[in-house]
Amino acid sequence: MTTPENTTPCPEHRGLPVGRMPELRMMPAPSDANVYGDVFGGWIMSQVDIAGSLPATRRANGRVATISVNSFVFKNPVFVGDLLSFYADIVKVGNTSITVNVEVYAERNRLQACTVKVTEATLTYVATDSDRKPRKVPPLETLLA
Ligand SMILES: CCCCCCCCCCCCCCCC(=O)SCCNC(=O)CCNC(=O)[C@H](O)C(C)(C)COP(=O)(O)OP(=O)(O)OC[C@H]1O[C@@H](n2cnc3c(N)ncnc32)[C@H](O)[C@@H]1OP(=O)(O)O
Questions:
Q1: CA 132–ligand 1 middle distance (angstroms)
Q2: What DSSP designation does 85 have?
Q3: Which of 13, 16, 105, 141 has the least C-beta neighbours within 10 A?
């Protein structure tokens, strides 16, 4: 079958980042794409939000809410059938906030080994209490103890 993911030239191939574990791996379905087979940006944003929230939740040792999407770049299109890996790293911890950088890589043309960085974003989460109010991010030592 001829599909966008096996007819589009591979713009780069460096493989997946070495020595890092993705927070999420997902494969978009036809219902996540427009009529041209390009996956909706909103679908990608939603998965990025979830991926970024995972290290933020661990660091906050509890609930977080997204307060800001600071930057979001759709560097290359995502196609139905791409295997997406979401890598998320905390880049800043404030009093109540945690900022996370998320990078997304697509594995496509799997028989020809094509890996493409498709998206990069930075989001800020706020640690919240049971009343949805900001709470202090706990000191790192208390998490490791
Ligand atoms: C781990 C393994 C198991 C996991 C198992 C559980 C999995 C779990 C998965 C759940 C996955 C859900 C992931 C999606 C999470 C949503 O989608 S949440 C839904 C969307 N977001 C919302 O509805 C939030 C709505 N906003 C609010 O409720 C309030 O703004 C908040 C978030 C409570 C914050 O209250 P506020 O009074 O506005 O905050 P304020 O005191 O002014 O500022 C708080 C901090 O934010 C910073 N801030 C304020 N404005 C900005 C801005 N524009 N830009 C950047 N920073 C800002 C401030 O500088 C401050 O930082 P610190 O100096 O304290 O560090």
A1: 9
A2: E
A3: 141
Per-residue tens of pLDDT for the chain, all 145 residues: 345 544 566 766 678 999 999 999 999 999 999 999 899 999 999 999 999 999 999 999 999 999 999 999 999 999 999 999 999 999 999 999 999 999 999 998 766 678 999 999 999 999 999 999 999 999 988 887 6
Q: Are 71 and 79 in contact (CB under 8 A)?
A: no
Q: Cα(93)–Cα(122) distance, rounded to whole angstroms?
A: 13
d(CA 117, CA 21): 15
Category of 49 on φ-ψ map: left (φ > 0), alpha (ψ -120 to 50) or beta = alpha
Ligand 1 centroid – CA 78 distance (Å): 28
Q: Using the atom order of ligand 1, give the atom closest to the CA of residue 97.
A: 65
Domains and CATH numbers, the chain: 10-137 (3.10.129.10)
Q: Which of 126, 129, 133 to mutate to test the pocket of ligand 1 (most atoms within 8 A of CB)?
A: 126
Pick the atom of ligand 1 nearest to 68's CA. 54
pTM of the model: 0.93
